[in-house]
Amino acid sequence: MRCEWANGSVLEQEYHDHEWGKETHDDQQLFEMLVLENMQSGLSWSTILNKRENFRQAFDNFEIQKVAQYNEDKFVELMNNAGIVRHSLKIKAAIHNAQLILAIQEEYGSFDAYFWGFTQHKVKNNPWKTIVEVPATTELSDEISRKMKKRGFKFIGSTTVYAFMQAIGMVNDHLITCEFKK
Protein backbone atom coordinates (compact mmCIF):
# COMPACT_ATOMS: atom_id res chain seq x y z
CA MET A 1 0.00 0.00 0.00
CA ARG A 2 1.28 3.47 -0.90
CA CYS A 3 0.37 6.98 0.25
CA GLU A 4 -3.11 7.89 -0.98
CA TRP A 5 -2.03 10.99 -2.91
CA ALA A 6 0.00 8.81 -5.29
CA ASN A 7 -2.85 6.69 -6.61
CA GLY A 8 -4.12 9.11 -9.26
CA SER A 9 -1.91 7.96 -12.12
CA VAL A 10 0.94 5.66 -13.06
CA LEU A 11 3.23 8.71 -13.22
CA GLU A 12 2.34 9.67 -9.63
CA GLN A 13 2.87 6.08 -8.49
CA GLU A 14 6.29 5.93 -10.16
CA TYR A 15 7.31 9.26 -8.64
CA HIS A 16 6.09 8.20 -5.20
CA ASP A 17 7.66 4.76 -5.31
CA HIS A 18 11.06 5.74 -6.72
CA GLU A 19 11.76 9.38 -5.84
CA TRP A 20 9.53 11.10 -3.30
CA GLY A 21 10.97 10.98 0.18
CA LYS A 22 14.27 9.44 -0.95
CA GLU A 23 17.39 11.30 0.15
CA THR A 24 18.73 13.46 -2.66
CA HIS A 25 22.13 15.11 -2.40
CA ASP A 26 23.12 15.86 -6.00
CA ASP A 27 23.00 19.61 -6.65
CA GLN A 28 21.58 19.22 -10.16
CA GLN A 29 18.77 16.96 -8.90
CA LEU A 30 18.12 19.34 -6.01
CA PHE A 31 17.88 22.24 -8.46
CA GLU A 32 15.48 20.27 -10.66
CA MET A 33 13.19 19.58 -7.72
CA LEU A 34 13.38 23.19 -6.55
CA VAL A 35 12.38 24.46 -10.00
CA LEU A 36 9.58 21.92 -10.28
CA GLU A 37 8.24 22.76 -6.82
CA ASN A 38 8.36 26.47 -7.73
CA MET A 39 6.52 25.77 -10.98
CA GLN A 40 3.92 23.72 -9.10
CA SER A 41 2.86 26.66 -6.93
CA GLY A 42 -0.87 27.09 -7.57
CA LEU A 43 -1.06 24.01 -9.81
CA SER A 44 -1.44 20.29 -9.23
CA TRP A 45 1.64 18.11 -8.85
CA SER A 46 0.28 15.82 -11.57
CA THR A 47 0.41 18.76 -14.01
CA ILE A 48 4.10 19.21 -13.25
CA LEU A 49 4.86 15.49 -13.48
CA ASN A 50 3.14 15.35 -16.86
CA LYS A 51 5.37 18.19 -18.11
CA ARG A 52 8.56 17.05 -16.37
CA GLU A 53 10.35 15.74 -19.45
CA ASN A 54 9.48 18.94 -21.28
CA PHE A 55 10.96 20.92 -18.39
CA ARG A 56 14.13 18.84 -18.54
CA GLN A 57 14.55 19.55 -22.24
CA ALA A 58 13.63 23.22 -21.95
CA PHE A 59 15.93 23.83 -18.97
CA ASP A 60 18.98 21.94 -20.30
CA ASN A 61 18.50 19.03 -17.87
CA PHE A 62 18.63 21.57 -15.03
CA GLU A 63 22.35 22.19 -15.41
CA ILE A 64 22.70 25.03 -12.92
CA GLN A 65 25.58 26.76 -14.76
CA LYS A 66 23.61 26.84 -18.03
CA VAL A 67 20.35 28.01 -16.49
CA ALA A 68 22.16 30.75 -14.55
CA GLN A 69 23.43 32.14 -17.87
CA TYR A 70 20.08 32.26 -19.65
CA ASN A 71 19.54 35.54 -21.47
CA GLU A 72 16.47 37.35 -22.79
CA ASP A 73 16.38 35.20 -25.95
CA LYS A 74 16.28 32.01 -23.88
CA PHE A 75 13.60 33.54 -21.63
CA VAL A 76 11.45 34.29 -24.70
CA GLU A 77 12.05 30.76 -25.97
CA LEU A 78 10.86 29.36 -22.63
CA MET A 79 7.82 31.63 -22.62
CA ASN A 80 6.88 30.27 -26.05
CA ASN A 81 7.32 26.63 -25.02
CA ALA A 82 3.82 25.15 -24.69
CA GLY A 83 5.27 22.03 -23.05
CA ILE A 84 6.13 23.80 -19.79
CA VAL A 85 4.41 26.18 -17.39
CA ARG A 86 4.70 29.55 -19.11
CA HIS A 87 4.59 31.84 -16.12
CA SER A 88 7.05 34.68 -16.63
CA LEU A 89 7.79 35.25 -12.94
CA LYS A 90 8.36 31.54 -12.29
CA ILE A 91 10.70 31.24 -15.28
CA LYS A 92 12.61 34.34 -14.20
CA ALA A 93 12.77 32.90 -10.68
CA ALA A 94 14.31 29.65 -11.98
CA ILE A 95 17.05 31.61 -13.74
CA HIS A 96 17.61 33.94 -10.79
CA ASN A 97 17.63 31.09 -8.27
CA ALA A 98 20.21 29.22 -10.38
CA GLN A 99 22.47 32.25 -10.07
CA LEU A 100 21.99 32.27 -6.30
CA ILE A 101 22.74 28.55 -6.09
CA LEU A 102 26.06 29.17 -7.85
CA ALA A 103 26.89 31.71 -5.12
CA ILE A 104 25.86 29.19 -2.44
CA GLN A 105 28.06 26.53 -4.06
CA GLU A 106 30.96 28.98 -3.89
CA GLU A 107 30.27 29.73 -0.23
CA TYR A 108 29.30 26.26 1.07
CA GLY A 109 30.90 23.93 -1.46
CA SER A 110 27.49 22.71 -2.65
CA PHE A 111 23.81 23.57 -2.54
CA ASP A 112 23.39 20.22 -0.80
CA ALA A 113 25.66 21.29 2.08
CA TYR A 114 23.73 24.54 2.47
CA PHE A 115 20.20 23.15 2.30
CA TRP A 116 20.73 19.92 4.24
CA GLY A 117 22.60 21.93 6.87
CA PHE A 118 19.21 23.13 8.13
CA THR A 119 18.66 19.61 9.54
CA GLN A 120 22.30 18.88 10.34
CA HIS A 121 22.19 16.53 7.33
CA LYS A 122 19.59 14.28 9.00
CA VAL A 123 16.23 13.02 7.77
CA LYS A 124 13.18 13.73 9.91
CA ASN A 125 10.86 10.71 9.89
CA ASN A 126 7.28 11.70 10.66
CA PRO A 127 4.76 9.19 12.03
CA TRP A 128 1.67 10.30 10.08
CA LYS A 129 -1.26 7.88 10.00
CA THR A 130 -3.45 9.82 7.55
CA ILE A 131 -2.85 12.36 4.84
CA VAL A 132 -4.75 15.03 6.79
CA GLU A 133 -2.04 14.94 9.46
CA VAL A 134 0.70 15.89 7.00
CA PRO A 135 1.39 19.63 7.34
CA ALA A 136 1.78 22.05 4.45
CA THR A 137 4.39 24.02 6.41
CA THR A 138 6.42 23.69 9.59
CA GLU A 139 8.46 26.03 11.75
CA LEU A 140 11.56 24.75 9.95
CA SER A 141 10.13 25.39 6.48
CA ASP A 142 9.13 28.89 7.68
CA GLU A 143 12.71 29.49 8.84
CA ILE A 144 14.31 28.14 5.66
CA SER A 145 11.93 30.18 3.51
CA ARG A 146 12.81 33.36 5.42
CA LYS A 147 16.54 32.72 5.13
CA MET A 148 16.37 31.89 1.43
CA LYS A 149 14.24 34.97 0.71
CA LYS A 150 16.82 37.03 2.58
CA ARG A 151 19.43 35.64 0.14
CA GLY A 152 17.17 36.78 -2.72
CA PHE A 153 15.45 33.52 -3.74
CA LYS A 154 12.11 33.92 -5.51
CA PHE A 155 8.99 31.74 -5.30
CA ILE A 156 10.29 30.17 -2.12
CA GLY A 157 7.43 30.39 0.35
CA SER A 158 7.14 28.02 3.28
CA THR A 159 4.73 25.67 1.48
CA THR A 160 7.11 25.35 -1.48
CA VAL A 161 10.04 24.78 0.87
CA TYR A 162 8.18 22.06 2.76
CA ALA A 163 7.15 20.31 -0.47
CA PHE A 164 10.81 20.52 -1.56
CA MET A 165 11.91 19.03 1.78
CA GLN A 166 9.50 16.14 1.23
CA ALA A 167 10.57 15.63 -2.38
CA ILE A 168 14.28 15.41 -1.54
CA GLY A 169 13.76 13.15 1.48
CA MET A 170 14.76 15.71 4.10
CA VAL A 171 11.45 14.87 5.73
CA ASN A 172 9.96 11.43 5.28
CA ASP A 173 6.22 11.98 5.16
CA HIS A 174 5.25 8.58 3.80
CA LEU A 175 2.32 7.44 5.92
CA ILE A 176 3.11 4.72 8.44
CA THR A 177 0.84 2.41 6.44
CA CYS A 178 2.86 3.03 3.27
CA GLU A 179 5.10 0.19 2.14
CA PHE A 180 7.74 2.80 1.22
CA LYS A 181 8.06 4.14 4.77
CA LYS A 182 11.55 3.40 6.06
Which short descriptors sum up this protein?
DNA_glycosylase, DNA-3-methyladenine glycosylase I, mainly alpha, two-stranded parallel sheet, metal ion binding, 2 strands, 9 helices
What does this entry look like structurally?
The protein is built from 9 helices and 2 strands; from the N terminus they run H-H-H-H-H-H-H-E-H-H-E. A two-stranded parallel sheet has the order 1-2. The longest helix has 21 residues, at 88-108. The protein is mostly helical and 182 residues long. It has a single domain (4-172), classed as Endonuclease III, domain 1, CATH 1.10.340. It is globular and about 50 Å long. The protein has helices at 10-18, 27-40, 45-58, 64-68, 72-79, 88-108, 111-116, 139-151, 158-167; strands at 124-125, 171-172.
Largest sheet geometry:
2 strands, parallel
Relative helix content: 40-55%
Structural classification: mainly alpha
Order of helices and strands: HHHHHHHEHHE
Global geometry: globular
Number of domains: 1
SSE order and pairing:
Layout lengths: L9 H9 L8 H14 L4 H14 L5 H5 L3 H8 L8 H21 L2 H6 L7 E2 L13 H13 L6 H10 L3 E2 L10
What is shown here, in short?
This is DNA-3-methyladenine glycosylase I. By secondary structure, this protein is an all-alpha fold.
